[in-house]
Amino acid sequence: MAKKRIARQKSSRRSSIRRGATSSAGGTRKRQRSLNGIDRVRQNILFTDVKEKALDAVMPKLTEVHYKPGEIIFDESTLGRSLYLIAKGRIRIKKYTKYGIETRLAILRENDFFGELSIIDGQVRSARADAIEDCIIMEMSGDDFRHLVNTSPAFAMNLMKKLSFSLRAMDQTFVAELEKNSLSAKIKMDRLNLLVEASKTVNSTIDIDKLLGLILGAATRSVDADRGTLYLIDEAAGEIWSKMTQGKSTVEIRLPIGKGLAGYVAKTGETINIADAYKDPRFNPEIDKRSGYRTHNVLTIPMRDKEGKIVGVFQFLNKKTGAFTEDDEAFIDALSVHAAIAVENAWLAQEMVKGERLSAVGRMASTIIHDIKNPMSTLRLYAQVIKKRSGNEEASRMAEEIIRQVDRFVNMTQEILDFSRGISEIHLQDTDVGVLMDTALRFIEQDLNKKKVKLERKLNYAGNCLLDLDKMVRVFYNLATNAADAMPHGGTLTVGTEQQDGHLVITFSDTGEGISDEIRAKIFEPFVTYGKKHGTGLGLSIVKKIIQDHKGTIQVSTERDKGTTFTLNLPLKGPS
């Protein structure tokens, strides 16, 4: 008997599966005959005020189907043969556009129903239905559905009310989606216009300093940030650098690639968007403590060129209308390509101009050296003879000065020629710094006295250092000459030396007019003379090149009407 009952149950289960298989894409089915199931489905809004006799006739015919989260109940464009009554769980009705965009049409809950339209009009399904969570669905066949419509006015009225409600809800959904899409399109169009205007701005100049300011200003305004910084990558130095204004001075900031948020982004190319700075371990609050500024949110994003190479880093602080968004990230990412191209074009344009000018200077220097080589050699030889044969101390001193000035002129011309040709060569020797400074400053002092400039010595290091003696003397002459030019009515030049952490530190401090912010930012570039009526504008460029060849650094600090200080930092043991 037990085997026969089991056989009948299996037969019944197969029958119910065949009945629902054409209308369901998944789920576990079984014929519903329990009072519990009937009680659940009686609460459905479709059966409100429907007579018990009509319900009793249809309830035993329902098929109970279980669905897991994400399981499809029916798909779009399939033929519908069943009505679905929700006994438990939530169902999502959605549709995909031809572009693959998903649109949610409705979320249905217990005591609701769906799938009626395909039974009514005989057309294929117009949307997809899937389970949001574990669901129990009671399936009613199309025949039973049509029988209730024809025999039960309450059932038919409930159906019409639901259809009316669904149409209204769909209208509202459609209008809401339309408004949402219109707003999204407007925002994207505004962003596009903003990008176009920003692109025009960043391509409006080839002055690199002005350009960086324009790029940063356009980017900061576009993401509605309170502050921003644009770092560029210096591959040769392994650093990122930027320029910041502090009071009346412009300060260059340099950070090793990999250090801090900006350095990390420069190294990895990863975008970092921090909604709450003080809750993120990557943020360093010490910066706020020193500056007095309160950082709330941070967006740090790489600037890439058209090949995708990282050439800089944008960093923005404190979006004025909340946290930085993915749209902000996308905008800066799009702008960065235009910015990188503008920077590259500016560099190329400036290099072309400098190259042409250097070439012209080189040709001029070559001609000068060729034309004056023999006369200068003769002049120097006669001066040496006069010094040797003259018994007059004054004449001997004057002959020595002639020799010095001839050597200075020839060396300066040769130096300009070498710089214009890109020749870079140093000959290091173990040099007594005390002797070097004493000899060089003694001759420099003679020139300064003629210009009413007093020389003060603060020489605190008298040890040795590996240096190219001739080139370092050239550096001292150039710095002293610039200092004297900055003090047209006289003043004081203080030259100091000291040892710091295995380095020789040499300072030249004047009491002159100082250097304007605009000039200071490019003081080491060729042909920058900051108002002087004489000179080639190559002096400080040559100075910087010589210091770099020694693997040292040169920095300048200045204050208007108070003076300027150049600081040289050279490794005692020479380049390593």
Q: What coarse outline follows from CA principal-axis ratios?
A: rod-shaped
CATH class of the largest domain: Mainly Beta
Radius of gyration: 42 Å
Major sheet size, sense and barrel closure: 6 strands, antiparallel
CATH superfamily of the largest domain: Jelly Rolls
Overall residue-averaged pLDDT value: 79
Tell me briefly what this model is:
The protein is an alpha+beta fold and 576 residues long. The chain contains 15 helices and 22 strands.
Structure report:
The protein is α+β, with helices and mostly antiparallel strands and 576 residues long. The chain folds into three domains: 2-171, Sandwich (Jelly Rolls), CATH 2.60.120; 199-344, GAF domain (Beta-Lactamase), CATH 3.30.450.40; 426-576, Histidine kinase-like ATPase, C-terminal domain (Heat Shock Protein 90, 2-Layer Sandwich), CATH 3.30.565. The protein has 15 helices and 22 strands. It has helices at residues 2-20, 35-42, 52-58, 116-121, 142-151, 153-202, 208-222, 260-268, 286-291, 326-389, 393-421, 433-450, 469-485, 517-520, 539-549, and strands at residues 28-31, 63-67, 72-74, 82-88, 91-96, 102-108, 113-114, 128-131, 135-141, 225-234, 239-246, 249-256, 272-274, 298-304, 310-319, 429-432, 453-459, 464-467, 491-500, 503-510, 553-559, 563-571. The strands form five sheets. It has a six-stranded antiparallel beta sheet, sandwiched between helices. Helix 7 runs antiparallel to helix 10. The chain starts with a helix and ends in a 5-residue tail after the last strand.
